[in-house]
Design brief:
single chain; about 160 residues; Helix Hairpins; transmembrane helix; two-stranded antiparallel sheet; K_chnl_dom; transmembrane; ion channel; outward rectifier potassium channel activity
């Protein structure tokens, strides 16, 4: 009993019921302890950002570009959003081209458009990659928990 009161063992007791145990986890029935290699050494290569954060960043990027091109090019919001979406998804039909209005300064607008497109393409690519990693992580965790419960029920 005195060993279980030790702080180092108290933190390593069995996980709560229903918690999936990974292959790296070690469970000892004799001591009633549970040790996870994963919890002691966090994986620095795996970054999990919620999908909602990526979607908010994408909508903010599209909205910011929509407002920028609406003011620079005197386009309506739908046309500006259409141009931003088509350009950032690299579809690029070319039916709307910035710099065609006679009231705007061509050099400044070209610089802003170029910076927006370069930054937007990089940010859009990063967000799609993070969303893909999050979906793969969720599916992997679901599969591990299903496999754990399947082994527990069948006894293999």
């Amino acid at each position: 009993d005195s060993e279980l009161e030790d702080d180092s063992l108290r933190d390593r007791r069995l996980p709560p019921a229903g918690y999936p145990i990974d292959m790296e986890d070690q469970v000892s029935i004799a001591t009633g302890s549970w040790r996870s290699e994963r919890s002691e050494r966090p994986d620095e290569n795996n970054v999990n950002i919620p999908i909602t954060v990526s979607l908010v960043i994408l909508f903010a990027l599209l909205y910011g570009g929509t407002e920028m091109f609406r003011s620079f090019e005197d386009w309506d919001r739908l046309t500006s959003f259409y141009f931003c979406f088509i350009s950032l998804t690299t579809i690029g039909f070319g039916d709307f081209v910035p710099g065609s209005s006679a009231t705007s300064d061509q050099r400044i607008n070209f610089i802003y458009c170029s910076l927006y497109l370069m930054f937007g393409l990089a940010l859009l690519s990063m967000c799609f990659n993070l969303m893909q990693e999050e979906v793969v992580h969720k599916v992997t965790m679901c599969m591990k928990s299903v496999t754990f419960f399947k082994r527990r029920v069948t006894g293999t």
